[in-house]
Amino acid sequence: MFYNRVEELNTLKKYLNSNNLEFFILYGRRRVGKTALLKKAVCGKKGIFFVGRQVTGSTLLDAFSNEVARLFNLHGATFKSWEDALRFVFQKAKDENIYLVLDEFQYLVEASPELPSIIQMLVDHEKSKIKLILCSSSMSFMEKLLAYKSPVFGRKTGYMKLNPVNFEDSHEFLADYDFHNLMKAYAITGGIPQYLNLFDTKKSISQNIIDLFLSSSAPLKEEPLFILSQELREPKIYQSILEALAFGYNRPGDIASKIGFSDSRKIQPYLRNLITLNIVQREIPVTVKNPIRTRKGIYVISDPLFRFWYRFVFPYLQYLEFGQIEPVMEQLEKNFEQFVSFQFEKSTRIFLASTLGFDRVGRFWEDDLEIDIIGKKRDQWFIGECKWRNRNITQSDLNALYKKEKALGVKPSCYILVSKTGFKNNLEISQNTMLVKLDRDKGWIIEKKRI
Q1: Which string of b and e fits 110-123 if b means at least 16 CB within 10 Å?
Q2: Residue pLDDT, tens place only, 10-27
Q3: 383 contacts: CB under 8 Å, gap ≥ 6
């Protein structure tokens, strides 16, 4: 099934329907749905959809020659070089729109490093209506392909980084789950379509975790390890850093000490690489005026699957090898709801930013003070608290927010309380208070808005 991606699909179709040569680059992490999106976009159109594999260059060229022969009824035609093969397709597209999708392009370049230069030459000199689309799931490779020193730099007519679907849209994949279970599933999958499709909504979240991560044949049992091995050298150091982050070691000094490095500067290149791969992000308090120079930043795992896996699976792999899932289930019983609360807060900030039109939004921390939501809209400040728990928000919760506001030193225009379950009837709210609930059946509901 193909869900969502309406805007992305329309963008690709615009390029495919153009009367000019188009050179489009599509990239994004593994399993995010790039190939499904491309196949939907080119459906019913004339062209070649070729997927790279980890085989020799001659094997790939032979396979590509067969695709060209099939499309143009050449019966057994072969090409001596990639330049000959690609030039032939470019020339065939002089008078008609023909698409050429080169998926998993990193494998093609790995086997034939001359390909980017050949494409640059053809794009520059061939008069063609071809719709060339390069696609890759290797984030590090595509960052280099888009960089200044790349042969194809400046040649693309468009590009798209395909992101995971947001929380609200993930309901299309798991329509039988209520929004509370959907939040739990989203906290694990992070909106990656293939991971969402693996969930069985007839089963509980716990059973899905067992089936997808813990059983002997679990499809996601080693998924993060595979992604890291495809992208990075020295995976052991990255694994140690990610485990430290998953257990709350967020500052460079603490991370370095946890993994046995005496100098925190040595881990900076590893953190930068993880940020490039969208696995980790650097967070700073939203009120900081100079984000680049501040030393108040912390590092967190931004990819939910990695957060989940390094918190609940990686530390217990030795048990899982022997079929012992009890240690993992014990940790899940104790810590899973707190784990989900992190995603609940993040999804809340995204929802509020969209609903209220924030210029910027984030959170704040300093010493023992933490505020879940701080938003700014022109000269107005909004502060709020999120509660992922099975009891209603009370007056004491609102009073605690008032105290935090005094320590923060910013006078907000609006206070926001966000609840999983609801609010006590005797909650005394002022004119500048907003109540938001993630309703089990309806999703986000703004119960009171007094601004």
Answers
A1: bbbeebbebbbebb
A2: 999 999 999 999 999 999
A3: 371, 373, 374, 375, 401, 404, 405, 408, 410, 412, 414, 415, 416
Domain match, 119 and 27 both: yes
Does the reported pTM lie above 0.85? yes
**Shared-domain flag, residues 182 and 303:** yes
pLDDT (tens digit, 9 = 90+) per residue, 91-104? 999 989 999 999 99
Find out whether 302 and 276 touch, Cβ atoms under 8 Å.
no
On whether the CB atoms of residues 61 and 30 are closer than 8 A, the answer is: no
Q: Are residues 156 and 175 in the same domain?
A: no
Residue 345 lies in a domain: no
Distance (Å, whole) CA 224 – CA 219:
11
| Residues 279, 303: Cα–Cα separation, whole Å | 5
DSSP codes of every residue in 258-292: HHT-S-GGGGHHHHHHHHHTTSEEEE--TT-S-TT
My answer on whether 177 and 261 are in the same domain is yes
* End position of a domain, from candidates 137, 161, 185: 161
Residue 346 lies in a domain: no
